[in-house]
C-alpha cells in the first residue's frame, strides 16, 4: 500500500507528528482542567463550611435574643404590651400610605 500524499511526500510521518502534538495538547489541557476542578471543589467545600458555621452562629444568636425577649416580656408584661401596641399603630400608619 502506498502512503504518499498527492504531492508524493510521505503522509504518515507528518500525520503521526500532528497526532502526537494533538495528544500532548489534549493531555496538558486535561491536566489543567483537573487542577481547576480540584481548586473549584476545594473553594466550594470551604464556602460550604463557612456557610454552615455562619448559620450555626446566627441560629445561636437568634435563640439568645429570643430568650432575652421572652425574659423581658415575663418581667415587664405591661410595658411589653404597650410597646407591642405602639409598634402595631406605627405599622398600620405606614401600611395605610
Concise synopsis of the structure shown:
87% of the residues lie in helices and 0% in strands. It is mostly helical.
Description:
With 97 residues, this protein is mainly α. It has one domain (12-96). The protein has helices at 12-75, 77-96. The longest helix has 64 residues, at 12-75. The chain is rod-shaped and about 95 Å long.
Poorly predicted regions are: 1-5
Question: What is the percent of helical residues?
Answer: over 70%
User: What's the number of helices?
Assistant: 2
What's the assembly state of these chains? single chain
Average pLDDT figure: 89
Radius of gyration: 35 Å
Count of individual domains: 1
Order of helices and strands: HH
Distance between the termini: 91 Å
Number of strands: 0
The major β-sheet equals: none
Topology:
Blueprint: H1 12-75, H2 77-96
Helix pairs in contact: 1-2
Based on the model shown, name its key terms.
97 residues; rod-shaped; mainly alpha; 2 helices
